[in-house]
Design goal:
The protein is low in regular secondary structure. Helices cover 6% and strands 1% of the residues. It has one helix and two strands. The protein has a two-stranded antiparallel sheet. The longest helix has 17 residues, at 278-294. The radius of gyration is 49 Å and the shape is rod-shaped.
C-alpha cells in the first residue's frame, strides 16, 4: 500500500487495526482464534493448543492430543461427524466409534451391541457371560457345555432338544415314561403314578394302592389253617390260638401283604386269597377229643 509497516496502522490491510489484530501481519478479517490465545488461527501453528502442530494434527481446530481416528480416514474422531465410517452420523449412532450399520441393541439401553460390554444387561459382562444375549444372572449350565440353560436348546446334552425332551434337565435319551404323565422316569419322583414316591415305593414301576407301593398278594403261609397240625391245635381243642381257625398272620379274610419277604416281586402277579377252612379246625378238634376219651 506504499506505507511501511512502521508507519502503517494496518500492516496486513485486513481492515483490522494492528493494535486490535491477532495476526497483524497476516490478513484474517474474521480474527478466528480456536484456542483463545493471543495468536489468531491464521498465524498460530497450533490452533487448538493441544501441543500437536497443525501440520501434523488430524483435528487442527479441535484439541485431541490422542489423535484418535476410529475409521482411519485421516480425520480425527474429535472432528469427524462419522467417526467409525459406518455411514451413520455420530449424533444418531449408538456406537459412534465402532462401525455397526445395523445398529443392533439387544437390551435396548441405547448402546449398540457392538460397543456394549453387557448386551443382555444382566450384570454379567459379555466376556464372562454364558448367554451373552439372554439375561441369566445365575449362569446355570446343567450340562457344563459353556452355553447357559437360558440359551441352550439341549440343557442336558442328551441329543434331544428341550422342546421335545420329557426330562430337559436330566439326560435320558430313551425318553422312558412309565406312567405316561409326560415326565420321564429320569426326572419323575413317582414313576408309576400310584401316589407313593419312588424312594419309598417297593415297586416304583408297578402301581399299587398299598402304603408301601407293593401290590397286595395272597397269604402263602397258612391258608386259614395251621398246617403243622392239619387245622387242629392240640393245645386248644382245634381252636387256632384264639383265632378260631382264622388265617395265621393275616386278617379274617385270609389275606395280607406277602409275609415271606419285605421286598415285593413285581414280576409275579398277586395270588388270589384262598377261602378259610374253619370246618377243618372243628372236625380235627372233635377227632382229638374222641381219641382221648377212648384212651
Amino acid at each position: 500500500d506504499g506505507l511501511g509497516d512502521l508507519c502503517d496502522d494496518d500492516d496486513d490491510n485486513d481492515g483490522v487495526p494492528d493494535t486490535d489484530d491477532n495476526c497483524p501481519v497476516l490478513a484474517n478479517a474474521d480474527q478466528m482464534n480456536a484456542d483463545g490465545d493471543d495468536n489468531g488461527d491464521a498465524c498460530d501453528d497450533d490452533d487448538d493448543n493441544d501441543e500437536i502442530l497443525d501440520g501434523d494434527d488430524n483435528c487442527p481446530l479441535v484439541a485431541n492430543a490422542d489423535q484418535a481416528d476410529a475409521d482411519n480416514d485421516g480425520i480425527g474422531d474429535a472432528c469427524d461427524d462419522d467417526a467409525d465410517g459406518d455411514d451413520i452420523a455420530d449424533v444418531d449412532d449408538n456406537c459412534p466409534t465402532v462401525g455397526n450399520p445395523e445398529q443392533a441393541d439387544n437390551d435396548d439401553d441405547g448402546q449398540g451391541d457392538a460397543c456394549d460390554d453387557d448386551d443382555d444387561n444382566d450384570d454379567v459382562l459379555d466376556d464372562d457371560d454364558n448367554c451373552v444375549f439372554e439375561a441369566n444372572t445365575d449362569q446355570v449350565d446343567t450340562d457344563s457345555d459353556g452355553a447357559g440353560d437360558t440359551c441352550d436348546d439341549d440343557d442336558d446334552a442328551d441329543g434331544i432338544a428341550d422342546d421335545d425332551d420329557n426330562c430337559p434337565l436330566v439326560a435320558q435319551d430313551t425318553q422312558t415314561d412309565s406312567d405316561g404323565d409326560g415326565s420321564g422316569d429320569a426326572c419323575d419322583d413317582d414313576d408309576d403314578d400310584d401316589g407313593v414316591l419312588d424312594d419309598d415305593d417297593a415297586c416304583p414301576l408297578e402301581p399299587a394302592d398299598t402304603p408301601d407301593g407293593c401290590p397286595e398278594v395272597g397269604n402263602n403261609g397258612n391258608n386259614g389253617a395251621n398246617n403243622d397240625n392239619n387245622g387242629a391245635n392240640n393245645d386248644n381243642n382245634g381252636a387256632n390260638n384264639g383265632n378260631n381257625g382264622e388265617a395265621n398272620n393275616g386278617g379274617p379274610d385270609g389275606t395280607s401283604e406277602d409275609p415271606v419277604t419285605d421286598d415285593c416281586d413285581c414280576t409275579t402277579p398277586a395270588s388270589p386269597p384262598r377261602a378259610p377252612f374253619h370246618w377243618l379246625a372243628l372236625v380235627g378238634g372233635l377227632a382229638v377229643l374222641v381219641l382221648r376219651r377212648r384212651s
